[in-house]
């Protein structure tokens, strides 16, 4: 089969980190988001793996050189929506194709997901369905599709993982909504194209996913880091340092006089001294000194320095620092 991964989004909700790094290369639980996705493809027989690029695409191309898939890189010059991204990425493809968003980590057996004679949409029940593409179902069969409904009739959100028996039909459907100018919130949505196919009689089934981790905001990235560390926990003991699991500490990180964890990822060549860090992501070559960090993301080569206090406080006193 083929695989399409759209990674053209600019990641505006993750700025300032995405000013210099593509969203899909942000570090979480020991490696970039895209690495988690590509590693999940092990064991799949992939004919062609298409990556749909936007700005800073060269960095993604360089990163993908670490893998041995049959890559094809295409550019989405204008951000016209997910439907348009799939349209651009599917050019020249035919037959079975899986599509997976480049800022989403899904903990599911992808081999099992693709073992179907139907078109499959991965879904999950959500608290705010009006924020997502929503499916209406009867059993496991899809009866309706709507993008970001104001009055949703279902709470099953499409989580960004798809399997199509004939990708050429999806491309034609996107072409149709573009010709008709069918947009939702100013973009050509894949959900609207699939709705068109559903109305023409194409069958879709749902696969319910429990573990779906969006990496679209800083808070979501921290949440995803917290979960994935349960599976990617790794560190070697450091002198004068207390480590509270789970954490991921790259072997080249230099750490002294610190308390690290729980739920901390530290990238290669980072330097941390005299600090307490929990529930945070410290990227490659960052420096943290004399600091207390919680729910923080420190970018590559960034420097964070706090201040140490020396006190001589008598009995029954109270000292508060802002």
UniProtKB/TrEMBL annotation:
Q: Which domain of life is it from?
A: Bacteria
Show where the Mannose-1-phosphate guanyltransferase C-terminal domain sits.
244-304
Q: InterPro entries given for it?
A: GMPPB_C, NTP_transferase_dom, Nucleotide-diphossugar_trans
Family annotation (Gene3D superfamilies): Hexapeptide repeat proteins, Spore Coat Polysaccharide Biosynthesis Protein SpsA, Chain A
Q: Which residues form the Nucleotidyl transferase domain?
A: 4-230
Q: Which Pfam families match?
A: GMPPB_C, NTP_transferase
Q: What is this protein called?
A: Uncharacterized protein
Protein source organism: candidate division WOR_3 bacterium SM23_60
């Amino acid at each position: 089969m083929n695989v399409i991964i759209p990674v053209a989004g600019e990641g505006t909700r993750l700025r300032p980190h995405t000013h210099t790094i593509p969203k899909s290369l942000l570090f979480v639980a020991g490696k970039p988001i895209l690495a988690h996705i590509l590693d999940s493809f092990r064991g799949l027989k992939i004919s062609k793996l298409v990556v749909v690029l936007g700005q800073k695409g060269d960095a993604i191309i360089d990163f993908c050189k670490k893998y041995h898939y049959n890559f094809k890189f295409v550019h989405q010059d204008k951000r016209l929506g997910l439907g348009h991204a799939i349209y651009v990425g599917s050019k020249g493809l035919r037959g079975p194709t899986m599509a997976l968003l480049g800022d989403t980590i899904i903990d599911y057996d992808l081999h099992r997901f693709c073992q179907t004679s139907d078109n499959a949409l991965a879904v999950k029940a959500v608290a705010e369905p009006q924020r997502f593409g929503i499916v209406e179902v009867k059993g496991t069969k899809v009866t309706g599709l709507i993008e970001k409904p104001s009055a949703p009739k279902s709470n099953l959100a499409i989580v960004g993982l798809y399997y199509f028996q004939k990708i050429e039909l999806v491309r034609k459907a996107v072409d149709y909504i573009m010709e008709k100018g069918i947009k939702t919130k100013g973009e050509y949505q894949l959900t609207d194209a699939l709705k068109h196919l559903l109305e023409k009689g194409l069958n879709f089934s749902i696969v319910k996913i429990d573990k779906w981790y969006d990496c679209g905001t800083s808070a979501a990235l921290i949440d995803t880091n917290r979960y994935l560390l349960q599976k990617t926990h790794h560190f070697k003991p450091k002198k004068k340092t207390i480590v509270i699991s789970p954490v991921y500490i790259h072997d080249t990180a230099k750490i002294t006089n610190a308390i690290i964890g729980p739920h901390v990822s530290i990238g290669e060549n980072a330097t941390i001294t005299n600090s307490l860090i929990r529930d945070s992501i410290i990227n490659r070559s960052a420096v943290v000194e004399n600091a207390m960090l919680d729910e923080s993301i420190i970018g590559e080569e960034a420097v964070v320095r706090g201040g140490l206090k020396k006190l001589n406080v008598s009995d029954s006193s109270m000292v508060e620092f802002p």
